[in-house]
Amino acid sequence: MVAVHVSNSLSSEIKPPKPTIKLEFMGPKPNPDGTCPVQTASALSGEKLLRNIMLDNKIELYAAYGKVMNCGGGGSCGTCIVEVIHGKELLNERTATEQRYLKKKPDSWRLACQTIVGNKENSGKVVIQRLPQWKK
């Protein structure tokens, strides 16, 4: 005979969903009709760098430089600049590396390789302008 344990508490078996950050990435140049191309992605809060989310979802990050010339996410080249249009409060503060590379740039500009999306507790939506240096 096999003993089977049945739990009377459903709440102990159901885990709440992990907080998620939804992201929209606006293209650097408008479409012929004037609309801006948008790509979307999502990530668990506090678990990934913006750079990795973009690369995992095949969202262009380095087009301004032709071939992919970058430091591999080490924060030593400054080629992964993005602009945070909405949701700045869902990202970490600028790092010392960003302070150095972006000291003469708008506060909304970030290095994707230094930007953590979420803090493991928050959720919401972040809108990112790719390649802000291309905006005219």
From TrEMBL:
**Cofactor(s) in the UniProt record:** [2Fe-2S] cluster
Name the UniProt key words of this record, in alphabetical order: 2Fe-2S, Iron, Iron-sulfur, Metal-binding
Domain 2Fe-2S ferredoxin-type per the UniProt entry, residue ranges: 69-117
Q: Which GO terms describe its cellular component?
A: mitochondrion
The cross-references to Pfam families, in alphabetical order and at most eight, read: Fer2 (PF00111)
Keyword Metal-binding listed = yes
Q: Name one GO biological process term.
A: electron transport chain
Q: Which Gene3D superfamilies match?
A: 3.10.20.30
* Molecular function GO terms recorded: 2 iron, 2 sulfur cluster binding; electron transfer activity; metal ion binding
Q: Which family does it belong to?
A: Belongs to the adrenodoxin/putidaredoxin family.
PANTHER family according to UniProt = FERREDOXIN-2, MITOCHONDRIAL (PTHR23426:SF65), FERREDOXIN/ADRENODOXIN (PTHR23426)
Protein name as annotated: 2Fe-2S ferredoxin-type domain-containing protein
